[in-house]
Write a structure and sequence with these properties.
D-Maltodextrin-Binding Protein, domain 2; 2 domains; 40% helix; globular; 359 residues; alpha+beta; 12 helices
Length: 359
């Protein structure tokens, strides 16, 4: 597969157009590059992030334009991959910033000592539930799972509008799902089903039965978002669960994609940021964290990369129309986030063992 060099010098595997990731090659490239100082004398700041090229290039160029002494470098990977990599590198950290991912995954890293305390000035403008009690990470954006469909094959009137609609017989073999073992978004969506089961019955068994029925509808579990979108666009699958940001990016590019916010509620995920413990360039990393959460940077990310800010003090009129509309239409689901954080790993292991490909 093609490996593309960025202007910053770090190699990234694109989210679209590539079918597979080569972990061994990527690890070797990363270690080789990060072991070499910037030849132009700039200070590197290394981001591990699931945010994709659109946002990562945007913040790289914007931050370097006002901080020419800094060289932003990034590696794009899934949320679970970031946790696994930061954990494996704890004796010799390569990243400076854990930039993005659901707090249910990042909290595991925080509990294991993978993050260092740092409280940016903008933290006071966050809801209390978006701030880690020990200042190890903070909500930056809101990630919102939606029901996504191929709008060239399915009319708006016929498209799924709630989670239960995915079990309709007309979607048998037409659902394609991002592998939840690698995806924070899908872990949270599945976690919603299981947490609701616990709340209603005292056990996750009914939720696993629901997921087993969804499994019977599912034609494939794909390893990355690029494959997910390719299958939907090629009508190898017609409906899926994915995140609002990517749906908006695809829609902007003229891709035949439509989406609905689940009518019974969707988990609104705190997409967080934190300073890696032992970061090689901690001081410079703190400067980036201060900038990325200020009002100007948040509005830039909303306008150019469809990120919904986590801060609740921004004037509604300062946000682009899509964000104002989303805030009006989203129905946040009631979810026991503490339970999800505690049981999420166990639930996914059980799903993988008892449900995957057995529906």
């Amino acid at each position: 597969m093609a490996v593309e060099p960025l202007e910053s010098g770090l190699m990234s595997f694109p989210r679209a157009g590539s079918l597979f990731r080569c972990e061994a090659v990527r690890a070797l490239v990363l270690v080789a590059i990060l072991s070499i100082s910037c030849s132009d004398g700039r200070t590197p700041v290394v981001l591990y992030s699931p945010h994709g090229r659109d946002l990562l290039e945007l913040v790289e160029h914007a931050y370097e334009a006002i901080n020419p002494e800094i060289d932003i470098r990034w590696l794009d990977m899934g949320s679970q991959e970031i946790y696994d990599r930061v954990r494996s590198e704890r004796a010799n950290p390569q990243a400076d910033i854990w930039f993005g991912g659901p707090d249910t995954i990042v909290s595991r890293g925080a509990a294991e000592g993978l993050l260092a305390a740092y409280r940016p000035a903008w933290a006071d403008h966050l809801p209390a539930e978006s701030r880690h009690a020990g200042d190890l990470y903070f909500g930056l954006y809101r990630a919102v799972p939606v029901l996504l469909y191929n709008s060239a094959a399915i009319s708006e009137d016929d498209a799924p509008r709630d989670w239960q609609d995915l079990l309709d017989p007309r979607w048998t073999g037409k659902v394609v799902i991002r592998d939840p073992l690698a995806s924070g978004t899908m872990r949270t969506a599945f976690g919603l089903i299981l947490a609701r089961s616990v709340a209603e019955t005292g056990s996750e068994d009914a939720g696993l039965d629901w997921l087993r029925r969804l499994d019977a509808q599912t034609s494939d579990y794909v390893q990355n978002p690029a494959l997910l979108f390719e299958k939907i666009i090629r009508q190898e699958g017609l409906v899926t669960i994915w995140e609002l940001t990517d749906a908006l990016l695809l829609e902007q590019r003229g891709t035949p994609i439509g989406y609905n916010f689940p009518t019974s509620g969707t988990p609104v995920i705190d997409d967080v940021i934190g300073l890696v413990a032992g970061a090689p360039h901690a001081e410079a990393a703190r400067g980036f964290i201060e900038w990325i959460g200020d009002e100007e940077a948040l509005i830039l990310a909303a306008r150019e990369a469809f990120r919904l800010p986590a801060r609740n003090d921004l004037p509604a009129g300062s946000l682009p129309e899509w964000a104002q509309r989303a805030l009006a239409e989203i129905r946040p689901a009631e979810l026991d986030w503490k339970l999800l954080g505690e049981k999420g790993q166990e639930w996914m292991r059980r799903w993988d063992r008892e449900v995957r490909s057995k529906g």
